Structure formats: structure tokens, C-alpha cells
């Protein structure tokens, strides 16, 4: 089980340091075997890595929120996967719906970014999810299935990636998908994954979209839910720790 915090474009250096210190302390005392990952803004990665590794047995991994498909070059404002790896990251998020919407990223571009991440030795968390219009038109499975297949490079091994299912209409809105809908979609994603490669039966499929301490247990208890990708509630130590506790 992976409990991941997507900080998006939030936090200051001081706030990041105290949040990570609280999370590291929690990890040192946590009983379960869930893994915690935080995705800070790129300029805070150094600070977060320093705060996490300075604390014994932090059990906390760090990731970038995006990477470029190329390893270096003339791409102003972008960040290359090898830079994230050198800064101390183990993970990178690719294909978050905010990147797909704000930066016009297609699934083919997401797959190129995922390839770059793997070349750099990072694990990749590939985000997928339908819009409200697509769900209301009865196309959620079709859209998400295609996003999974098209965003996932051929030949990845099961220990190199995770999938995060985040219905766009549930992100930052307080509208969480019902456990039945999450169950149906995660079963569908599992079938799509194992249709590609039988070893993908053990890939963690995270749910994201308004996960909070009071709904985490119901969502994380579902068979094919392998964790949570948390936005707003990952910025508060108490809430994020409560969600991690719900993962066991
Ligand atoms: P939210 O964001 O938890 O604030 O809905 C989730 C995400 O976008 O990863």
C-alpha cells in the first residue's frame, strides 16, 4: 500500500520542513508496512530530502511532480528526470490531470515522460482519470482504459510503476467517488493491466480525489485499491498521518 501526498504548487520551505519532520517521526513509529511518498514542488525537493534523511528510519520516499521526456537540453522551465534522481527522488508523478489540462499533455507524451523516468532509475506513478462529462456519457471505463494503455510504455516491470486513478471531478472538489464506483474502476484498471502483462496483477492502483481521514478507510479497504494519492489533505500532518494509519 502506498500513501502519496501531492503538494502541487503549495508550501513554503519552513512549512515543508516541519511537515516532513512530523511525517518522518510518524513513519519511525508506524506499525504497518505501507509506504509513504511525498511529491513537493521541485524547488523544495532538496529541503524535503534533507529533512527526511536526517531522521532515522524515515521510511519516507520523495518524488517529483513531473519530468520532461528528454534527459537534458534546451527546454526552459522544465525539469529532467536525472535531475530529480540526483536531488534524491525515488519517484515521479506523470500525467496528473492538472498537467494534462493545463499543459496539453497527451497520453503519448505521458508515456515518453515515463520512459525518461525509468531511464533515470525513478519509479513512475502514472495518473489517469475521466472528466464528469465522460462519466455522465457512460465512457469512464473506455477513457481510463485507453489512458492506462497509452500512457504506459511497453516493457515496464511490475516494480517500476504504480497507477493513480483520479476522477477529474473528484479532485479538490470534496466530491469523493463512491466506494462502488472506485471498486468498479479499479477492477477495470486491473483487468486492463493484466491484459498487457500478467505480472501487473501486483501493481498498486492508488485512488485519488478528495481523500480525507473520514473516507480513507472505506476506500483503502477495497480489494484493488493499493493506496491513496492525496492533495489537499496531504498538506496537514495530522490529516495525512490519519490517512496513512487507515492504510494499516
Ligand atoms: P485532492 O487532490 O486530494 O485535493 O482532491 C488529489 C490530487 O490531485 O492528487
Keywords:
TIM Barrel, 8-stranded parallel beta barrel, binds 2-phosphoglycolic acid, globular, alpha/beta, 10 helices, 8 strands, 248 residues, single chain
Explain what you see:
The longest helix has 18 residues, at 179-196. The protein has 248 residues and is of the alpha/beta class. An eight-stranded parallel β-barrel has the order 1-2-3-4-5-6-7-8, surrounded by eight helices. Helix 9 (213-220) links the parallel strand 7 and strand 8. The termini are close together. The protein has a single domain (2-246), classed as Aldolase class I (TIM Barrel). The chain has ten helices and eight strands. The relative contact order is 0.16.
- Quaternary state of the chains: single chain
Radius of gyration (Å): 17 Å
Query: What class, by secondary structure content?
Result: alpha/beta
The geometry reads as: globular
Topology, element by element:
Blueprint: E1 2-6, H1 13-29, E2 35-39, H2 45-53, E3 60-64, H3 81-87, E4 91-94, H4 97-102, H5 107-119, E5 123-128, H6 132-136, H7 140-151, E6 161-165, H8 179-196, E7 205-208, H9 213-220, E8 227-230, H10 237-246
Parallel strand pairs: 1-2, 1-8, 2-3, 3-4, 4-5, 5-6, 6-7, 7-8
This protein binds 2-phosphoglycolic acid.
Amino acid at each position: 500500500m502506498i500513501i502519496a501526498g501531492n503538494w502541487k504548487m503549495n508550501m513554503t520551505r519552513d512549512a515543508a520542513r516541519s511537515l516532513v519532520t512530523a511525517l518522518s517521526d510518524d513513519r519511525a513509529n508506524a506499525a504497518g508496512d505501507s509506504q509513504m511518498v511525498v511529491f513537493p514542488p521541485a524547488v523544495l525537493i532538496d529541503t524535503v530530502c534533507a529533512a527526511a534523511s536526517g531522521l532515522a528510519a524515515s521510511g519516507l520516499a520523495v518524488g517529483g511532480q513531473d519530468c520532461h521526456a528528454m534527459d537534458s537540453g534546451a527546454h526552459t522551465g522544465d525539469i529532467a528526470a536525472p535531475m530529480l534522481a540526483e536531488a534524491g527522488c525515488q519517484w515521479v508523478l506523470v500525467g496528473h490531470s492538472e498537467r494534462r489540462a493545463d499543459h496539453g499533455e497527451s497520453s503519448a507524451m505521458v508515456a515518453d515522460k515515463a520512459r525518461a523516468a525509468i531511464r533515470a532509475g525513478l519509479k513512475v506513478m502514472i495518473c489517469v482519470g475521466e472528466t464528469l462529462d465522460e462519466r455522465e456519457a457512460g465512457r469512464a471505463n473506455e477513457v481510463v482504459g485507453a489512458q492506462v494503455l497509452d500512457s504506459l510504455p511497453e516493457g515496464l516491470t511490475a516494480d517500476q510503476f504504480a497507477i493513480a486513478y483520479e476522477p477529474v471531478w473528484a479532485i479538490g472538489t470534496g466530491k469523493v467517488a463512491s466506494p462502488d464506483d472506485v471498486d468498479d474502476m479499479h477492477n477495470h484498471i486491473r483487468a486492463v493491466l493484466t491484459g498487457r502483462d500478467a505480472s501487473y496483477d501486483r501493481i498498486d492502483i492508488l485512488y485519488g480525489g478528495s481523500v480525507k481521514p473520514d473516507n480513507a478507510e472505506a476506500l483503502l479497504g477495497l480489494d484493488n485499491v493499493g493506496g491513496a494519492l492525496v492533495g489537499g489533505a496531504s498538506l496537514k500532518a495530522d490529516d495525512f498521518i490519519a490517512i496513512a494509519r487507515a492504510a494499516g
